[in-house]
Amino acid sequence: MKSFRFSRRALVAATLVLVSALPLSFSIARAADAPKGQTIYSAGHSFHVFMPGILTDIAKNAGIADHKQVGVSSIGGSYIHQHWAKEGDKDAKAVIPREKPDVFTMSPIYLPDDGIENFVKLVAEKSPKTRVLLQEFWLPYDVYDVNYKKQRPKDPDRDALTAEYLRTEYGKYFEVMDAYVAELNKKYGKTIVYVTPVGQAVLALREKVIAGEVSGIKKQSELFTDGIGHCTGPIKVLNAYCHYGVVYGKSPVGLPVPGALESRDMDEETTGKLNTLLQEIAWQAVTAHPLSGVKK
After folding, report:
1. Which of 9, 16, 33, 44 has the CB geometry, 3.0–4.6 Å to 48, for a possible disulfide?
2. Which domains does the chain have, with CATH numbers?
3. What is the pLDDT of residues 18-39, one digit of tens each?
């Protein structure tokens, strides 16, 4: 009897040790499986420049120890030619040939934009191993209007917009973006430029909101803070998950909730479900896009 009690106690103690070690084991396993960290420089407007910080958090959650953001060029409402015009030591034109980052992310507005090709030419000549990622964006005011800065459209009633309307309107922009990227790569004789399909992912999220399938979000308007389309946490995190997928070629599904999503006024279970959905949408968008460079 004594010996049985001893064995049972020993078994319980061993189980407790094993259980307490599980999070550490999972961390070690995740770190061992993690891809090599990438160095990244980013340039863009307010639909993009929040992304590098969230991506850094996601990479840390994925156990990528050597992920590094080497700089950000931020100009509100900017075209890429405005970033090309900057001459500072920390600006893209100086950093790219000096640091030779693995990845250069950009967020253009509408095309054409000669600043994009200026950077592609710079990369081709001075940093040929750098991948250039162009971020699709979600349309300002939810309308395809290349002249929206000259004459501001009306603020949209986002909760009244249908999935059919969004797909039709955004499709005009996606078509122009894809043709532009394909032509650039053809001109330089190799694939330098890739598409980060954030716009596609945002549409997929909004379709699910319309269908009532998103944990913690009931209306499309909850995803935005104003008429032009500055976004709340879920789209910011979705953006970063799309970039994670393109940068690392790995699915974000299963990674912990990043800080940018934890700050929302939701309980833990709701936040967790939303995080998983954002991961799934991002990975689907990335692997479905022919110009992302990533396949399932």
Report:
1. 44
2. 34-288 (3.40.50.1110)
3. 434 444 444 444 556 788 999 9
